[in-house]
Amino acid sequence: MRNYSTQMEAARKGIITPELEIVAKKERMTTEELLPLVASGKVAICANKNHKCIDPEGVGSMLRTKINVNLGVSRDCKDYDVEMQKVMEAVNMGAHAIMDLSSHGNTIPFRRKLTSECPAMIGTVPVYDSVIHYQRDLDTLTAKDFIDVVRLHAQDGVDFVTLHCGITRKTIDQIRNHKRKMNIVSRGGSLVFAWMCMTGEENPFYEYYDEILDICREYDVTISLGDACRPGCLADATDVCQIEELVRLGELTKRAWEKDVQVMVEGPGHVPLDQVEANMKVQQSICQGAPFYVLGPIVTDVAPGYDHITSAIGGAVAAMSGAAFLCYVTPAEHLALPNLEDVKQGIMASKIAAHAADIAKGVRGAREIDDKMADARRKLDWEAQWECAMDPETAKRIWNERKPEHDDTCSMCGKFCAVRSMNKALAGEHIDIL
Fold this sequence. Notes:
Elements: H1 7-12, H2 18-26, H3 31-40, E1 44-45, E2 58-59, E3 66-71, H4 80-92, E4 97-100, H5 107-117, E5 121-124, H6 126-134, H7 143-155, E6 160-163, H8 169-178, H9 187-199, H10 204-207, H11 209-219, E7 222-225, H12 240-258, E8 263-267, H13 273-286, E9 292-295, H14 307-320, E10 325-327, H15 340-360, H16 368-378, H17 382-388, H18 392-401, H19 418-426
Helix pairs in contact: 2-3, 4-15, 6-7, 7-11, 13-14, 14-15, 16-17, 17-18
């Protein structure tokens, strides 16, 4: 029987949980090394006690960078079977977390299917689900309605919930007075903002934060503190609205830790490349090292259809500079609900960014596979190269579709191949070109 409520409480009591043991093994750490990181909040092990099939992962800047995949139906694309196909494809490709952002239909069966069948961490945004769950317009919902949906998600086994706790009624004046180009682009943040404007009441996720902490403590749900004021364009990056909200999120992080509730902090957003590192350092300071969970960052506003690339550029710099968790961005960002191919492209871009960052910051074992790939390429061993590749199917398909005359080369260089020439030269063999 568990004699602790959360992973953080267990770590503070010196209890090595089964989840912590698994994470330590994955990260090539000892449990003695990992325990104080969980106890201090620098690592979160998002594992709801009702998510029985979870394969636990740790989220923290000193661990391997983790990747989240956003999925879920909308009014225009409402096939839950297709979404479940995307989920399993994402898990097979190495996604560590799935966020269900469904905004249409009966969301309960899909959410419960995720927490009963999916081994990845499951996240949700309860404020989206509130309107859908009650089938009532936003301004008719009460603070209690929002809190009850948080409880429902916790009971359903969700491992982390994004809650936009950091905006208050003061934010309304800030947004009106500071004349941002893009105002608020966070979907959840805009709903909370609109609710405050229509009802005249304070943000319920801020006002009743202690009650939410009690729910999260009971089920061991990690709070992902949503950045309602994240910049939606480069012009709004690192402005007063974003930074003031971050300061409040730092205060809320401390309050959660006082109740042994694990926290991640969400971050930008659209950020010029030269500001990405600074954003990471400011968050680490203000939020006392709590894991930073970033969307991108997207480093230019003008590449719709290619935002998996703009976000991978920002994500690599962000993770190298201290971000722990990258939310993938697909080519469909700003345009449409992603299809299966978009999901794949988004995951691959994020995986590349995360792996590059892990090498740069010296995560244990991160570069081993690269060194194996170098050995395989030197030997012109194609099968060994497929085994090292992040996406072996794609690599193999491209090579086969443009197959060379001789298998010891590729169709780019043929017998002009530098590797082939060097191997032969060093072995004292004749090098035939023509």
